[in-house]
Amino acid sequence: MNMADQQGKTLVRFRNIAIATILVATLVQFLGNVGLFNNYYLHILTVIGINIILVASLNLVNGYLGEFALGHAGFMAVGAYVAALIALKIPLPALVRLPLSLLGGVVAAGVIGYLVGRVTFKTVGDYLAIITLGFNMIIVNAIQNIDYLGGPRGLTAIPKGTNLVTVAVCTVITYWILRNLVDSVYGRMWLCIRENAIAGELIGIDVNKVKNLAFTIAAAFAGLAGGLYAQYQQFITPKSFDYLKTTDILVMLYLGGMGSLSGSILGVVAYTVLMELLRNVLGMVAPQLADLRMLISPLILVLIMLTRQYGLMGNREWRWLLPDRKQAEGGDA
Amino acid sequence: MSILEIKGLSVSYGAIKALEGIDLRIEEGEIVSLLGANGAGKTTALRAISRLLPIQGGDILFQGKSITQVPVHGVVSLGIAHVPEGRGVFPSLTVQENLKLGTWANKRKSAIPDLRQEVYRIFPRLEERKTQLAGTLSGGEQQMLALGRAMMTDCRVMLLDEPSMGLSPLFVKEVFRVIKEINATKGTTILLVEQNANMALKIAHRGYVLETGNIVLEGTSKDLAHDPRVKEAYLGHQ
């Protein structure tokens, strides 16, 4: 290992990047509050953070485990509604309200995810995709028909608990947990199942249990993203969590890369920035063209799939986001 | 008490009967080979024992206890390791990681360092390549890794499905030598499914011959090797 690598190892590493991210987010949020930073950009950065949580967590199931789940927005909905209810109905000081509501969202989405996983992991492949899509629809339709949850109008006037700083903190924590999970023996087992499920069973892995672990964790983090979203946007409707949202998450996931957490970051940033650029550029040319971006984004996905099947970063990681031990071993995990 | 006893085992794929009530008895420390042509039901028998396939009738006893209600992963932790046809190593994991995953169902965690040493002693090549991805190993090395990974489960019985398939003649010899060594030094009982009847009968103590779902012959390897029917069907005229 040469000098440059040594220096790289001491400075550009996950812990420092995480601290820097949170500091920059705090600064940007502060500048935004005092009117020195464009609030539109602030909004985009916040959305990017929430989407990274969604995409990186779905990567556990669709990337590392190699299954194809289609209901991620459903779990986001569970997290969003539970968090919103806690924030709305329980009078709590703001400092306690945010963590408690987020925790509620995480736990609720995790529990629902576990139950759905128990049922769905008796199947694989296409069937799993259809069943998870079905659950997404069931959750959204159920919410739509429950008056207590506001029905199709949704919940409004949710206290504002989230800004870029809380989103940045949650994103960093999520990334850290997911990365360490992927690097753990469970992460290895997910890869085993993806590569050869029967051989996995034959070395004693309880395949259904280990699959459901990934699914439950992914659902729990989708719940976290939902909780953040609800308290950032301050209003939620069932429609924000239908299969179109799931599709959005999938597009970012496949664009960034399967089995790569760095890819999830890249995919979200690239897709979000691109969509906003298109909206502005097309809007400048002619306002009625702005909707064309909805045509261009799937086209980009098709191109990516044709040229790079595993996405931009498929199965590779940015070295500086790997655990220190792996970073020393170098590159590809 | 036999370590593994199979009584009247029958398995069907839909309407097709693959095994029509076979009986096998394997004593502790033996190498038993299961011979037969393609489609005779050899692989099916192994898959039924390791619970990958549901059975329609009969019983499988491991150390006198029925295991037909035990899930696949439970069978592994009881001490039966199945090395499937085509080896089934995990290509994107390193040799080390493959071996480590073999210890997942191992109940005696304290035995793991010794097991690893044992594996590296029998397969020095694996130690040389321990940080290499399993997918980059040669076919023979992958078979070694599959055997080593099975050893890491701390098994009492190994079910080996065509371990010599697709290997160069040199590696075929090596695989059979290693199987014999595992049996001799660790006392692991081995049920060996093979097309290469010649080699299999050389290292096995006893053998069974399976034909279209039925056991048609059984006996010591010596007897089988001299049986005219076996000679004709599986060993070729000599």
Automatic annotation (TrEMBL), chain B:
It holds the Pfam family ABC_tran. SUPFAM superfamilies: P-loop containing nucleoside triphosphate hydrolases (SSF52540). Keywords: Amino-acid transport, ATP-binding, Nucleotide-binding, Transport. Coiled coil: none annotated. It comes from Geomonas silvestris. This is ABC transporter ATP-binding protein. GO terms for molecular function: ATP binding; ATP hydrolysis activity; branched-chain amino acid transmembrane transporter activity. Gene3D superfamilies: P-loop containing nucleotide triphosphate hydrolases. The keyword Nucleotide-binding applies.
